[in-house]
Amino acid sequence: TLFRSLTSRTSMGILVVGGVVWKAVGWRLIALSLGLYGLLYVYERLTWTTRAKERAFKRQFVEYAGEKLQLIVSYTGSNCSHQVQQELAGTFVHLCQQVDVTRENLEQEVATLTKKIEVLDSLQSKAKLIRHKADWLDCELNMLTHQ
């Protein structure tokens, strides 16, 4: 019953609006409009050939393929970006480890060289002391020989 009342109301509405339009513009304008619409329909029907259908299909396919390619490009780009980021992170960790190992080696080398410098300083001070003693003895010997 709801459908019947809806269609009867719709039909009645169309008739009322059609009557108002008929009175407002006249039957000639309505006939001209329907004639132009009919001509447009016949034109569309005649031009909708197999070739036109093929062109429309190709255009739709190009749009579809373009969208899919855009998705593939963005997906591939994000995957590539993620892979590069992982490679960089791995390389960074490896370089940090290398830096730590190199720093430890340098610290050991510095400690070894510091010990060698301390030994050399000690030897130098002993050599100075011995040289002063030798100079003193040389002076003493020279004084003994001159007497």
What does this 3D model show about the protein?
With 147 residues, the protein is mostly helical. Helices cover 97% and strands 0% of the residues. The mean pLDDT is 88.
What does the secondary structure layout of this molecule look like, with pairings?
Elements: H1 2-25, H2 27-47, H3 50-146
The SS-based structural class is: mainly alpha
The major sheet is characterized as: none
Uncertain segments: none
Average predicted local confidence, pLDDT: 88
Shape: rod-shaped
- Beta percentage is under 5%
The whole-angstrom Rg is 52 Å
Helix fraction?
A: over 70%
The first-to-last residue Cα distance is 155 Å
Number of helices: 3
Order of H and E elements: HHH
Query: How many distinct beta strands?
Result: 0
Summarize the structure.
The chain is an all-alpha fold and 147 residues long.
Tags for this model:
3 helices; rod-shaped; single chain; 147 residues
